[in-house]
Please model this.
Amino acid sequence: MLALTGTARLWEPRRLRLRLLSAAAQLVTTARRRHLRFARHWPWTDVITEAIQRLAALPNPG
Model:
């Protein structure tokens, strides 16, 4: 919930789990790095990628 904005922030827990955890994605490993590649046709891809970017931008607490 910390990283979501707009209407996504108001989703109920069941809807949040359904939309975020059932996303069509692949874990790709190349050159010692791992990338999570989401399908472009998935309706909530932009919500998930923006949330991940916001979480990455938060300062490290420890």
Remarks:
- The helical segments are 13-21, 45-57.
- The chain has one domain: 6-56.
- The mean pLDDT is 88.
